[in-house]
Amino acid sequence: MKKELTYALITPYSLLKSRTGGIISRLLSLSDLELVGARMYTPSDKFLDEYCETIKGQRIGPLWKRTLLDYVNDKLRKKNKLGISNRTMLLLFEGNDAINILHNKVIGPASEHLRGNTIRGTYGDCIKSAGKIEYFEPAVLTSADKATNINQLKLFAKYALSDGGILENVMDFGINKKPETSLIILKPFEKHDPRSGNIIDMIARTGFYMVGIKLLDLSTKQAEEFYGPVKDFFNSSFDDKFKPQLVEKLKTALNKQDFPFDLNDAILNKLADQLKEPTVEGEFGNILQYMTGSEPSAFAETKKTEDGKHTICLAILYQGINTIKTIRELLGATDPKKAKYSSIRRFYGLDILRNAVHASDSPESVIRERKIIGLYKDENTCDIKQIINRYLKNCGSSRRR
User: Fold this and answer.
1) Cα dihedral sign for 54, 166, 384, 9?
2) What CA–CA distance (Å, rounded) separates 290 from 300?
């Protein structure tokens, strides 16, 4: 069976109510589909006009077709009845029978019969009275059939640059309030791991707004540049951070050997100094390998994965007042064992290397890191557009055959 590409669009109301983490956890863990792309959108009226035309051709009952059209027109436009920002989050999923699985089994079809086994049953609402839908919040929008899916994916690709990307100028913080943007990266997780959504849910405690998102498949070259300051720190802190442990390891290993001299501390310290460079390179290499899933020896543009396991990183931009300090405090100490019990790293981190989340430590670091991973400004293209166009091209090739 040929793999299908489809989407889940988290609605503005779900984003505002901080339901995003729970929704993402469900999307990742309730199917065998693979998350392959993520992007924020503030859909324009032109986009939504065309989107409504695709709904009119969708294979669903007339009542729900009308309900979805009313929802899009009332709640998704920049000037909407809720009076909120029309931020949405697009997530692309790929897999066998993806359209049917995502729409019917994971998200759930548009219906007044809501149950907790679907995303809409848990995070959506519907009130029906006398054959009329009085209130409807779907939580997530998606396609109900293959033809509609193709048409809607075309729209997301068409408007990816004009209506999507970094949304730092859409939220209103009031007069004399100066918001800042913080970058976090959810460190490598397997494609069906719901913990990434759980972490997002914990960050929602801050009340900060998600204004950018991107799925990262870091090359070793990117990781080397991104973590360059860490390597500098390893070099400058070698005597305190690595040397004492290295001396002890040397003492344990070499004391078993028969030398014609006393293996005193002076000699061991000199040996440790000689091993400074390979020690730092080894520790730095561990970071590169963990963040990319590739061997650190060849600084290639693309990464390799082991045994078919696909690990990904998710980069998210949060905007608010004092975001950088607040989020770093919520994450907790770099070493999860030393982090507070209420912190994210205490819950989800394993050790200093695998401590669940990276967060930029200053406004300057935010800018530097965003540029490296391609989550900054002035895009000429984007991964979402490329992924969709590649899929549409393959679909066209299949039909011609």
Assistant:
1) negative
2) 15
The neighbour count for residue 57, using CB atoms within 10 Å, is 11
Strands (E), 266-331: 311-320
DSSP-derived letter for residue 264 is -
What pLDDT shows up at residue 138?
95
- Provide DSSP, 144-203: SSHHHHHHHHHHHHHTTTTTBS--TTS----TT---EEEEEEEEEEETT-THHHHHHHHH
What residue ranges in 42-143 does DSSP mark as E strands? 88-95, 125-129, 132-137, 140-141
Domain residue extents for the chain: 4-217+307-400, 223-292
Report the DSSP beta bridge partners of residue 140: 10
What CA–CA distances, in Å, run from 378 to 10, 159, 371, 372, 382?
24, 15, 11, 14, 11
> Per residue in 361-386, pLDDT tens?
999 999 999 999 999 987 788 999 99
- The separation between the first and the last C-alpha atoms of the chain, rounded to the nearest angstrom, is 16
- pLDDT tops 60 at residue 399: no
In the prediction, which pLDDT does 77 show?
Answer: 97
Q: Which two tokens stand for residue 226?
A: 């991104």
CA dist., res. 126 & res. 112, Å (int):
5
Q: Collapse the DSSP code of 210 into the 3-class scheme (helix H, G, I; strand E, B; otherwise coil) and give the result.
A: strand
Distance CA 72, CA 90 (A): 15
Burial status of residue 142 (CB atoms within 10 A of its CB: 0-12, 13-18, 19 or more):
buried
Between the alpha carbon of residue 25 and those of residues 94, 114, 175, 319, 375, the distances in Å are 16, 19, 36, 22, 23
Known catalytic residues? 358
Which residue type sits at 244? Answer: P
Q: Are the C-beta atoms of 247 and 272 separated by less than 8 Å?
A: yes
Nearest to 220 by CA among 285, 292, 269: 292
Q: Domain 4-217+307-400 adopts which CATH fold? A: Alpha-Beta Plaits (3.30.70)
Backbone angles phi, psi at 201, to 5 degrees: -65, -40
Please report, as a single letter, which amino acid is at residue 180.
E
Q: Among 30-34, 99-103, 248-252, which range has the highest average pLDDT?
A: 99-103
DSSP letter for 299, please. Answer: -
User: In terms of Cα–Cα distance, which of 69, 307, 17, 355 is closest to 195?
Assistant: 355
Q: Which amino acid is at 364?
A: E
